[in-house]
Amino acid sequence: MTKFPYLRQDFAASIVVFLVAVPLCVGVAVASGVPAELGLVTGIVGGLVTGFMPGSSLQVSGPAAGLTVLVFEAVSEFGVSALGVIVLAAGLLQLAMGFLKVGRWFRAISVSVVEGMLCGIGLVIIAGQIYAAAGLKAPKTGVGKIAGLPGAFVDAVSSTEALASLAIGAGTIAVILLWKRMPKAAQAVPGALAAVVLATVATLAFSLPVATVKVEGLLGVIRPPGTEALGELASPAIWGTILAFTLIASAESLFSAAAVDRLHDGPRTEYNKEMIAQGAGNTVCGLLGALPMTAVIVRSSANVNAGAKTKASRVLHGVWLLLFAAAMPWALALIPIPALAGILVHAGWKLIPFRQVASLWRSHRGEALILVVTAVSIVAVNMFEGVLIGLALSVVKTAWEASKVKLEVIDKGAGPIQAYLSGNATFLRLPKILDSLEALPQDRPVELDLSGLHHLDHACRTALDNWAERHSVPGTEPVRMTSGAEPLEMASGT
């Protein structure tokens, strides 16, 4: 026991994490449009491969609701056979970034972009899983899913089967929400698992006409990428999806690591090593044709709260997932799909940062705007482009705030007009600078002092050259520019 002083705590925590992971692994797989067992495969790899590696000792990896939308889009466009290739390439890119020590730079990504990404994902998940809960086919686009909800409700009300399916989904959500009010002894069983068990029992007891999970067996779903699938890498279109997987999975994992670090007093996350661990896990998942993995905050927080002390808990949770998938595959076939949809609707709701939006709106409206635009872009366009739009807005906002410039004009009525530029002169402030300079009299000598500038970009330098060349009317001394004690070599029109 001295070699494993925390074995009892880690063993107990691993059971809790396993019980939390089972319905989420299956639910994410079904929602992603792939066999349920692939979600369990990714969970197993997250425990047995990533779990063994250094990085963040207590966070747990597996298939994440945050990637559901992206995986569904990829499977729809390229097919299930190409999923392994996409995940494999993303894993190798993560490994490269980890070895190149890029991991820590993900902490520089604007929190508003990440929150906006999660919000957009949450909205698409909720909208899509409402259709699944009713046993209806969802439209392909995010906008289509949301716009089609009223019609879907009308269709569901007129169908006995759809109403029964919706009742199971709604009941699942109700159990998850109310489970926190149960006695502590009952809460030892995770709410999501209790909800799935109760939904399964209700479906069987009342013989409800509800769709259940299709089972193929663990070995039947493992499909290593073949030559044809590897040939997809020659297509430029697939690389956009690979980059999206890499960016989003890495950001979600490393932000999760930062959140988990705040939950415990143990060793802090080593971000580059965690990136390598995630890359190794996704590489193995790709070779098995499974779902991509990320660190999952739901499982990670359950691990910490259950008293885990070392990485042994997450490794053991992978063992329990493997035993379950190998010994009890028949149990998956009993699970009603609307119950899994209910779990994901609840998970999607938790991804929407209501409090953060309200707080940002009060203190940093620009950041709140970035969050909202990122979320709306993901719903309106797609995951990858939505995140890129958010990142671009974040960069523009930062550049705008950093490029504060002040123009002070002193006109003593006689002699040259003196103008002083100070701050950071970038192209973003160029219209304001030129408007002020062009308003100066053209029949008076002008001296422009640039010594107060900390930064002058090429666009501003060129624009000031052009302004100086054309500003003064004939017969007037040309514009004189100085930087410190020496005049700048600027065009003067002579």
Automatic annotation (TrEMBL):
Ranges of residues in domain SLC26A/SulP transporter: 7-374
Keywords noted in UniProt: Membrane, Transmembrane, Transmembrane helix
Membrane topology according to the record: Multi-pass membrane protein
Transmembrane segments: 12-31, 78-100, 112-134, 162-179, 191-213, 233-255, 276-298, 318-347, 368-396
The protein's name in its UniProt record: SulP family inorganic anion transporter
Sequence segments annotated as region (Disordered): 471-494
Domain of life: Bacteria
Pfam families, A to Z: Sulfate_transp
Keyword Ribosomal protein listed: no
Localization of this protein: Membrane
PANTHER family linked: SULFATE TRANSPORTER
Source species of the chain: Streptomyces cynarae
